[in-house]
Amino acid sequence: MTEIPDDRYDAVVDRIEEGLATLELDGDEDRYELVIDEASLPEAGQHEGAVYEIAVEDDRLVDARYDEEATEERSEAAQERFDRLSERPPDDDEE
Q: pLDDT tens digits, residue range 44-62?
């Protein structure tokens, strides 16, 4: 497992399985994955797609702030992409 440099990161809950939350972290040059106990996250953000600002020290989560607004924006953007992709292209006869 790649060591995560001590720093603050934007993070997204990628998945939650058997009480463990996997966070995807965006660093300046790399992406990291941090697996933590789901209960260590604020209850409102204990779901896939939740966006956080976190602090990591010694490969451990030391602070997590749930960003409800960023979570909603991310969810809306994903829904818009899905809607665009699910639109049926016009038939050759239609214009």
A: 999 999 999 999 999 999 9
Return the sign of the alpha-carbon dihedral for residues 6, 54, 27, 12.
positive
> How far is Cα 22 from Cα 13, in angstroms, rounded to an integer?
6
Phi-psi region of 59 (alpha: psi -120 to 50; beta: other; left: phi over 0): left
Backbone angles phi, psi at 48, to 5 degrees: -60, 140
Write down the residue that tokens 């993070």 correspond to.
Answer: 11
pTM strictly above 0.70:
yes
